[in-house]
Amino acid sequence: MEGEGVKKKRFDRDFKISAVKMVTQEGHTAAEVARSLGIHPNQLYSWKRKYSNDGEKAFPGKGHLTEISALRRQLREVEMERDILKKAVGIFSKPTGNDSSL
Q1: Would you say residue 27 lies in a domain?
Q2: Are 40 and 16 within one domain?
């Protein structure tokens, strides 16, 4: 079968930024840089667009980890607060047995 066993190439953040800067700052053409790095020019154009939109925050890692990890951290904090409140309600709603005014 075609494409079977083909592994997708992964490039680290520094590689992508360096490739983009070769086009934007050093004056090389995208096709020239892509050919020298062994990547498709469309890939380089995509990186260039992401870098121009996000600047130094571009290419955070695998997917949108920064946003996802922030949301997970927030979820953990809210769950801990909820659990604490549940325990507090349980403690304060128990009859003490010392209350003779009832």
Answers
A1: yes
A2: yes
Which residues, in sequence order, are CB contacts of 47 under 8 Å at separation 6+?
16, 19, 20, 58, 59
Tokens of 59: 């290419």
Token digits for 45?
Answer: 């154009």
Q: Is residue 17 part of a domain?
A: yes
For 27-74, the pLDDT digits (tens) are 889 899 999 999 999 999 999 998 888 887 788 766 556 677 788 999
* Structural domain boundaries enclosing 44: 11-59
20/41 Cα distance (integer angstroms):
11
Amino acid at 77: E
Q: Assign 100 a pLDDT band (cuts: 50, 70, 90).
A: low
% of the chain at pLDDT higher than 70 = 80
